[in-house]
Amino acid sequence: MPCCVTMDWPDRGTEMKLPLFAKCLLPSTFGGLAVAALLLAAPLHAEPTGVPTGPVVPGEASAAEQKVETTAEDKPRTPIEVRYVTDRLILGMKANPQGTGKNLKLLKSGTRLEILEKRGAYSLVRTPDGTEGWAKSAFMVKDKPAILVVEEYKAEIKRLEDEIKRLEAGGKRVEIRPDPAQKQRILELEQALAEARTQLRELKERPAGATKSAAETPSTVPGAPADSRETSVWLPVILALGGGLLIGAGLAWWLYDRRLRRRFAGLRV
């Protein structure tokens, strides 16, 4: 026969029988949860050293991310070399060499970049409008990409055509023999340009949630690190709460067994 205790409720004048194990389980469980909460309080509220605290303005990177080393008196840094964003790419510019946070700017293919510093897989670059930030070095090339070379060829052809028209209008005849090698080069570059434009058009036509910059990562998406950080934050909370429940259940069973043995002269029921 299960051992029960009697609880009186003065306001109703009735009796309620509660099993002894349940009476032991409730306070033990709450005690275990309280211990888990105390264990979690210290790491959750501790502020890491070296990281500035204070409100974060939405849409702006933190002061730690925006901090970029500068020379004395904030003089403009001299670029160590010049590179261009490679073909078929939209490259993201970050505020730090770790590649975290929001993009300061999206760099399209053919953008001229001045390399100010190299650190790991990232380089500190400056755009023609003066914006400085960190971008992946693997997506920069020394030679001008096809998109720029084609435009230069087109501008040169237009200049020659205008010059011919001007001379012919003045009563002079000019005979220009086109270079076959140059014409073949122009055709190759125009084909590469068409492929690059197709790639950019496909990126723009993707849904907003699926459009990802090729500069961010070839095999992963930028959202993955954020999800992993959220998981790492909640994992100790879940483990601590589960441990608290197990401790409470174990303590309740021990109290229950101890009271039964004391009541029945040491015999297990």
Question: How does this structure look, described?
Answer:
By secondary structure, this protein is α+β, with helices and mostly antiparallel strands. The protein folds into three domains: 4-40 and 234-263, no CATH class; 76-145 and 211-224, SH3 type barrels; 146-205, no CATH class. The chain is built from five helices and nine strands. It has a five-stranded antiparallel β-sheet with strand order 8-7-6-3-9, with no helix packed on it. A hairpin with a 2-residue loop joins strand 6 (112-119) and strand 7. The radius of gyration is 36 Å and the shape is rod-shaped. Residues 1-17, 43-73 and 208-228 have low confidence and may be disordered.
What structural keywords apply?
269 residues, two-stranded antiparallel ribbon, disordered N terminus, 9 strands, 5 helices, alpha+beta, 3 domains, single chain, SH3 type barrels, rod-shaped, five-stranded antiparallel sheet
Total strands: the figure is 9
CATH topology of the largest domain: SH3 type barrels
Alpha carbon gap, first and last residue: 9 Å
Global mean pLDDT: 65
Question: How would a crystallographer describe the biggest sheet?
Answer: 5 strands, antiparallel
Q: How many domains in all?
A: 3
> What is the CATH architecture term of the largest domain?
Roll
Note the run of SSEs as H and E.
Answer: EEHHEEEEEEEHHH
State the shape.
Answer: rod-shaped
CATH superfamily of the largest domain: SH3 Domains
**What is the spatial order of strands in the main beta sheet?**
8-7-6-3-9
CATH level 1 name of the largest domain? Mainly Beta
Percentage of residues in strands: 15-25%
Structural class: alpha+beta
Can you give the helix content as a percent range? 40-55%
Low-confidence stretches: 1-17, 43-73, 208-228
Radius of gyration: 36 Å
Q: Treating each run of at least 4 consecutive H or I residues as one helix, how many helices? A: 5
